[in-house]
Amino acid sequence: MASEISLFIVISCITLSSCSTNAQLSPFFYSRTCPNLPLIVTNTMRQAISKEPRMGASILRLFFHDCFVNGCDASVLLDDTSTFTGEKNAFPNSNSIRGFEVIDTIKSNVEVVCNGTVSCADILALAARAAVFLLGDPSWSVPLGRRDARTASQSAANTNLPPPTANLSTLISMFAAQGLNARDMTALSGAHTIGQARCTTFRTHIYNETNINPSFAPLRQAQCPGPASGAGDENIAPLDIVTPNRFDRGYFLGLVTRRGLLHSDQELLNGGSQDALVRLYSINYVAFANDFANAMVKMGNINPLTGSNGEIRNNCRVVN
Ligand code: HEM
Ligand SMILES: *[C@@H]1O[C@H](CO)[C@@H](O)[C@H](O)[C@H]1NC(C)=O
Ligand SMILES: *[C@@H]1O[C@H](CO)[C@@H](O)[C@H](O)[C@H]1NC(C)=O
Ligand SMILES: *[C@@H]1O[C@H](CO)[C@@H](O)[C@H](O)[C@H]1NC(C)=O
Q1: Which of 128, 168, 170, 282 is most buried by a 10 A CB count?
Q2: What is the pTM of this model?
Q3: Is there a catalytic annotation at residue 205?
Q4: Any known ligand binding at 104?
Q5: Are residues 31 and 150 in the same domain?
């Protein structure tokens, strides 16, 4: 595994232009101070996923919800207290984001060998990469050296994270606001090849919308009762109908047959600018995997705290 990882680092730095786009972050940031870091993260993620396959998806999503809210600074990991309002109870996160115990476990495993050295923001970036690698096969070199925020913003979490009701132009503009183009947006949406969503996030799509496969809608309605019942909000269904625990092109195949679970998913193939790319990804896994890896590096470079800004948190849930 160690040689696999270093091989990927070499390859990615040659092929991914984004490898050197952020002068502040470097894949070799902890090479001297914590050389086993990637291995510790991957091994802990492997244990977590073997205990619960969905955990890979949950960790990948945490990284997205960190980076889109004032940059990849581990702000999403901070707990609310009587004197501190974090992001966990923002509307897109509340009752939804998960995996904090796994990040805690990785952090404490890392602290044993590299005490006080590695930021929670970098742990999240490496854990997201490990999740994808363990559930499929893409990997990429992760630029490192992020530091942890001393603040969080519930209002930015409410504003910056796209809702499942968003149309294509809203999705494109919300990603553009983070420096990500439409191709990045569509590739990153391929994260929905793993994981689950709650009925409350897709009810309108399966009951009231027309751009949906007529056999898929009743299938999902069976587990997600209509609004009149007042029940079932928390029932979950897979975002990728066939292989929700495999990082593959299944999500895009689903979109092509109008089996996207969220309204926002099906917007990517609904007669608009992303149709051709969705069709490409649905038949060409390598094209998807390469674009996804590239876009993950770009997303990971959003507004990091570096140098003497921020801190290296002792506990990912609280500022020092
Ligand atoms: C394009 C705009 C996006 C929208 C509107 C969106 C929305 C959602 C929603 C509503 C859920 C279900 C949450 C719940 O029911 O509690 C979800 C799940 C998920 N999202 Fe997204 N998402 C988007 C982009 C992304 C991106 C860029 C990533 C990562 C790179 C991502 C990764 C995930 C994963 C892995 C899950 C499943 C999590 C789990 O099973 O715990 N999403 N998303
Ligand atoms: C790491 O260092 C801190 C502060 O010096 C100390 O409180 C903590 O117990 C150490 N943790 C480990 C795992 O050695
Ligand atoms: C997309 O949604 C936004 C915000 O709800 C709305 O202003 C806009 O008109 C919509 N665009 C299209 C093409 O439907
Ligand atoms: C579907 O639309 C009808 C009429 O606009 C509305 O009453 C109902 O609540 C909607 N159902 C869902 C699931 O959004």
Answers
A1: 128
A2: 0.93
A3: no
A4: no
A5: yes
